[in-house]
Amino acid sequence: MNNSPTILEIDSAAIKHNLQYFRSKIKKSTKLLIITKAFAYGSDSVAIAKILEKEKIDYLAVAYTNEGLTLRKANIKLPILVLHPQAEYFEAIIQYNLEPNLYSFKILKEFIRVAGLKKLKNYPVHIKINSGMNRLGFNEKDIPLLQKTIQNLHGLKIASFYSHLAASEDLEEKEFTKQQINTFYKITKELNKSLPYKPLEHISNTSAILNYPEAQMDMVRLGIGFYGFGNNYDETKKLKNVCNLKTKISQIQFLEKGDTVGYNRKHRVDKKTKIGILPLGYADGLNRMLGNKVGWVYVNKQKAPIIGNICMGITMIDLNGIDCEENEEVIIFNHQDHILEFAKKTKTVSYEILTSISQRIRRKLV
Fold first, then answer.
1. CA–CA gap between residue 14 and residue 366 (Å, rounded)
2. pLDDT in tens, 118-174
3. What is the pLDDT of residue 152?
4. Are 363 and 43 in contact (CB under 8 A)?
5. Do 12-229 and 243-365 share a fold?
6. I need a surface site. Which of 86, 88, 94, 240 has the fewest CB within 10 A?
7. pLDDT tens digits for 199-223?
8. What is the pLDDT, as a whole number, of residue 1?
9. How many Å apart are CA 233 and CA 11, to the nearest integer?
10. Of 37, 128, 240, 246, which one is the catalytic site residue?
C-alpha cells in the first residue's frame, strides 16, 4: 500500500475539457486515437483508459507490448495500437488482441509467419510509412515490394496505413510538413491499389490537428494536447492541466546565518532562515537541475524557492516569510505555466517533466 504524502492528482474534469476541445476541431466522421504510452504521459494509463472507454474513443496507442498488456489485464476493451512491437512479444500481442505496427519487412514477415502458425483470420495490423521523420517505417523505395507482400496477407488485415509528422508545431517548417503529407498520400494511393478494401489513413498528431485541419484523413492521434499542452502558448491557455503534483512538509528547520543546506553545502543562508523538508527528490522525477533556487514550489500560494542540491528522495525549500506548519500542503506544480517554466529551466520539454514522474508516487483520480 502506498501511503506516500506525495500525490499526482489526475484531473478528470480537465481530461474531459481537453477531449471536448479537440473533438470540436475535427469532423464528426474523423476517428480519434489517444496516445497512452509512458503511463499516459506520466499519469495513469489504466485510469485514463477507463475514462476514454466511457467517452467512446475509437483507439488507444501504446509504445510497447507490456503497456498494452497492462491495459488488457485491467479489462480495457478498446482497440490498442502497439507503436513499437518486438518480434519476441508477437504471441503475447495475439493472445491479448493487441494491434501491432509492422514497420519493416523483417517484422512484417515474422508476424505473417506467427499468424500462419496461429491460423489467424483477418487479424488487424498497421503499416507505418516513413514520410520524412526518419524513424520507424517503410520508405518510398520499399513500396513495390510492400505492394507484393500485402497482396498475400493470409490471416491478416491492414487496419491502417499511418505516418508521423516531424515538425507540425513549427510553422517555419510548413513546406516540409506539407511535403510529408503529400508523400504519405502518394504512397497510400499506390498501396491501396493492392488491396480489395481500404484501410484507415492517419498522419496528424496534436499540432497537426490544430495547424493542418486538411490532413485529418480518417483518424487523428491526440497526444500531449490531451494532457493540456497545445502547439503554442495561446492554444495551451485554452486547455486545462491534467496532472497536479502535491506533497507535504515533513519537517521545518530554523537555520542561523552561515549554516549550509544539503549535499556539498551548496546553499548557505545569509540570515536566520526557515526551511522546509519535502519527501520527494530526483528519484521521484523532480529534475536535479531545479535545485539551488532554479526552481520553486508553492506553499499557501506563495513561491518557495528550492534550495541546495535536490536529493534522491528529499528536497529543501526556503520558507522565509511564509506562514506554514509541518504537514502543510506543497504544490510542486498544478498549472501548465509552472510545468513550462520547469521545462525551460531544465532545457527540456513539457513531455519530459510529465513522463519523468516516478511510479513510486501515488496517483489519485480527482
1. 10
2. 999 999 999 999 999 999 999 999 999 999 999 988 899 999 999 999 999 999 999
3. 84
4. yes
5. no
6. 88
7. 999 999 999 999 999 999 999 999 9
8. 62
9. 20
10. 37
Half-sphere exposure of 266 (CA within 13 A, CB side): 18
Q: Are 69 and 92 in contact (CB under 8 A)?
A: yes
| Fold exhibited by the domain 12-229 | TIM Barrel (3.20.20)
The yes-or-no verdict on residue 3 having pLDDT over 80 is no
Out of 109, 263, 344, 364, the active site residue is: 263
CATH level 3 topology of 243-365: Lyase, Ornithine Decarboxylase; Chain A, domain 1 (2.40.37)
Whether 64 is catalytic is no
Mean pLDDT of 350-363: 95
C-alpha cell, 226: 490531451
User: What whole-number distance in Å separates Cα of residue 168 and Cα of residue 224?
Assistant: 13
- To the nearest 10 degrees (0 to 180), the angle between helices 143-150 and 105-118 is 10
Proportion of the chain above pLDDT 90, given as a percent: 96
Q: Distance between CA 92 and CA 185 in Å, rounded? A: 33
Q: Which of 24, 104, 117, 81 is nearest to 199 (CA)?
A: 81
Active site residue 263: yes
* Mean pLDDT, residues 279-297 taken together: 97
Q: Parse the chain into domains and list their residue ranges.
A: 12-229, 243-365
pLDDT tens-place string over residues 318-329: 999 999 999 999
Q: Which long-range contacts (CB under 8 A, 24 or more apart) does 101-109 make?
A: 101/125, 101/126, 101/127, 101/128, 101/136, 101/162, 102/126, 102/127, 102/128, 103/127, 103/128, 103/136, 103/137, 103/138, 104/136, 104/138, 105/138, 105/142, 105/145, 105/146, 105/149, 108/149, 109/149
CA distance 60 to 76: 10
